[in-house]
C-alpha cells in the first residue's frame, strides 16, 4: 500500500459519495425505521469556523450511529440566511446582501462537503430564498387569522447602533444588545407581535415531557424565562377615583400587612394619579420619571440598588380592613409586569422593607416566623395610620421575614399557616368580590417587527383608512425588491419604505391604493419551523407535508449550542404548538432530545479576531486532514464540555488514524474467513467494544468510544507483530471493527480501510455487529497487591482464584520481595480475587 495520503483520500471518497448518495432519504419504499437527527443550521457569516466543526462532527456521530444501527436517518442541512450581518456587510461594501449571503453559503457548502458530514444534500434550504420565506408569510397569516399576530404601540428595546428593535431575549443581562453590543434604550413604536403569552402555560408544563432528554440547564432556563407566578389579584379602592387599583400578589395571605402601595412611574396609572395630585407632586414626579427613564430594565430589577421614589399624596383603601394606605411611585415596580402596581408588605418583602426603611413607612408583621424584625415597629391601631411615624430602628436587622409561620395581626387568618392563609384569603376576596386567584408570567409577547431590509416582508397591506388587510395566500410570496436605489443604512424606519414602487400596491379587497407594511420579520420566525420544511423543501404548494411530518417528526435528536437555550427553542416550541392547534402536526414538542455541545476555546478563552487567538478551520483541515480534526473533536472530552484547542492534539489523531489504516493493509486473510477460528484474546477485546459502543454512543460518551477503539488498534497491532500474526481471523475481525467504529468519527479513513479489507463502499451503510456473549465473560481479573496498604504491583488472576493461591502468587512477585526486604510479615489480608495486602512489622 502507498502512504496514507489525506488529500488524495479526501478527494477520492467525496466523489464516490456524491455519486452513491448514501445519505439520501428520498426512497418512499424504504422500510427501515426512521430517525430524524438535526444540527442547528448555520448562519452564513463567512466560512465555517471551529465551532461549526465541533457541532457538525458531534451531530454526525449520532446520525451515522443510527444509520449503522439500521435506521433510515434524515440528517438535513440548510442555511439561516436572513439577518443583520449580511445587511451590515452589504451597507459597508455598498453591495446587495444577496451576493454576500449566497457567496458565503457556497463557501460553507464546499467546506461542509469536505468535512464529510453525512447530510442529505437533496434537501438543502436557504431561508432567504423566496421559496422558503413565502411560507414564513403563510405562517404569519395563519397566526393573524387565529388572533395570534397583532399590532400594538409599546415601549420597545431599541438598539441605537443597529437602529432596530430587539426582542427581550436579545438584550443581555448587562443591558446591552446581543447584536451590536450597544446599550439598549427604550423607544415607543407600533410593532407586530406574536402572542406567545397565550401559550405560556403549555410552554411551561410541556417541559416536563422533556425531562431527562434535554439538558436540565436548558429546561430550567426555559422555566425561568417563562416565569410563572401563582397568587391573586386584589382590588384596592382609591380615594377620589371610581375604579379600583388592582395589584397582583403571590402573597395574598399578607394583605393585613400591606402598609403602602407602589405604582410604576412609567405606567399610565401613575400618570393618572399624579394628574389628580398637587402641583408640587406633579413637579417632583416629572423629575423622578425623567431620571427613571435613563435606567435599563435590568438596572431596575437589581434588588440591591438604593431605593428611590415619590409620594403621590394619594390614598388607597385596604379591602380587608378598611385602612388608608399611602400610594407611592417607585421604579422597583415595573410597568409591564402584573398590573404595574403592588401592595407593599415591608415585613415580608425585602424590596418593600428597604423602601419602608428609607422613607420611614410602617412595617407590620403578619406571619410569626419566630424571628420577628427587631426595632421599633409602628403599630397601627384601629385601622388608623399613626400620625407621626417613628423612624425605624437602624439597628434592626433590615431583613424581611420570608419564612413560613402562623398568621398574626390578620383577623380571620390568625393562627393559619402561610399556605393555608394564602388559600383562605383568596377565598375571602372572591366571596367579597374584591379579588380573585390569578397568575402571571415573566414571558412577554414576541415582538417580530424589524426595521431592516434583509428579512421576510410582512404580508399585510395598509389601506387608505389605515385598515390592515392580510395579503391573500395566492399572492405570496411578497418578494423583496432589488436594492438598487435603496438606502439600507439604519435610520429607525425600514429601508423598504423607500422602495416606492414596491410599497405602492392595490388593496386586495377593492383595488384602492394601499401601502405595504415596510417591516420585515425577526429571523427567529424563519428558524421556528425550518425543521418541518426539510421534510419537503421543494414543495411549492404548502409549507410542509403533514404526512411527511407524521413519518419523520418530531426531531429525534437536535444538536446545537447552548446559546439558543432560550430564544430559538422557545419560539420553535411555540410555533409547533400553534401548528398542532391548527391541525397541521400531531405532536406538541418539536425536539424530543437535545444535545448542547460545548464551545471551542483557545488558551482558555473564546476565539475571536480581536483577541488574536482565532484558529482557522481551513488551516486545521489543511494541516491535519478532516478525519483528524473530527476525531479530535470527539475525543477531546464529553461533548457538553468546552474544548480548548491549545490542549488537544490533532496531529496525534492523524497519527493514530494512519496506524489504524495500516492494520487494514496488513490483514492477509480473506473476508470469508471463519471468525471463530481467531485468537480468543484479541476477539475478547473486539467483542467488548462491540458490546459497549452502542450504549456509550447513546449516552454521548463519544470520547470513551474513541479511547476504546485506540485500545483495539493497539491490541490488533500486537497480535500482528508479536501474536498470532496478520493471517489470523481475529486480526481481520478486529480491523473491521476498528473501521466500522471509525466510520462514525473519521469517515475518510474508515472508507479507505473498508476498501482495503475487500468491501465495496459506502461503509456508512454496513450494520454494526452483535457481540458474542460467550466472549464477554471475564477470563481474568486484576488483583492489586499492596504492602502496608500501598500499591506495589498488580497481577492478572482467575476470577475463581483462592486466597491461598493469591497470597502465594503475591509473595513471589519480585516487586513485593524487594519492597518487603528483610522486614517481618505480620499478616496478609486477602480479599479474593481483587486484593492482597501484606502487612509488615
Ligand atoms: C405582596 C407581597 C408580599 C409580595 C410578600 C411578595 C412578598 P413574582 O414571583 O416575580 O411574580 N410585584 C407584583 N407586580 C410587580 C411589578 N409590576 N413590579 C415589581 N414587583 C411586582 O413576584 C410577585 C410579587 O412581586 C408580588 O407579590 C408583588 O409583591 C411583586 F411578602 O405582593 B408581592
Automatic annotation (TrEMBL):
Residues annotated as binding ATP: 609
The record's listing under PROSITE patterns reads:
AA_TRNA_LIGASE_I (PS00178)
Q: Which reaction does it catalyse?
A: tRNA(Leu) + L-leucine + ATP = L-leucyl-tRNA(Leu) + AMP + diphosphate
CDD domains cross-referenced by the UniProt entry: Anticodon_Ia_Leu_BEm (cd07958), LeuRS_core (cd00812)
Listed A to Z, the keywords are: Aminoacyl-tRNA synthetase, ATP-binding, Cytoplasm, Ligase, Nucleotide-binding, Protein biosynthesis
According to the entry, every stretch annotated as the Aminoacyl-tRNA synthetase class Ia domain falls at 13-210, 443-644
**Pfam families documented for this protein:** Anticodon_1, tRNA-synt_1, tRNA-synt_1_2
Write the Enzyme Commission number(s) for this entry. 6.1.1.4
Motif 'KMSKS' region, chain ranges: 606-610
Looking at the record's lineage, which domain of life comes first? Bacteria
Coiled-coil segments: none
Chain ranges for the short sequence motif 'HIGH' region as given in the UniProt record: 42-52
Q: Which SUPFAM superfamilies match?
A: Anticodon-binding domain of a subclass of class I aminoacyl-tRNA synthetases, Nucleotidylyl transferase, ValRS/IleRS/LeuRS editing domain
Homology family: Belongs to the class-I aminoacyl-tRNA synthetase family.
Q: Which PANTHER family match?
A: LEUCINE--TRNA LIGASE, MITOCHONDRIAL (PTHR43740:SF2), LEUCYL-TRNA SYNTHETASE (PTHR43740)
Q: What NCBIfam families does this protein map onto?
A: leuS_bact (TIGR00396)
What's this protein's name? Leucine--tRNA ligase
**Natural source organism:** Leifsonella bigeumensis
User: Which gene specifies this protein's sequence?
Assistant: leuS
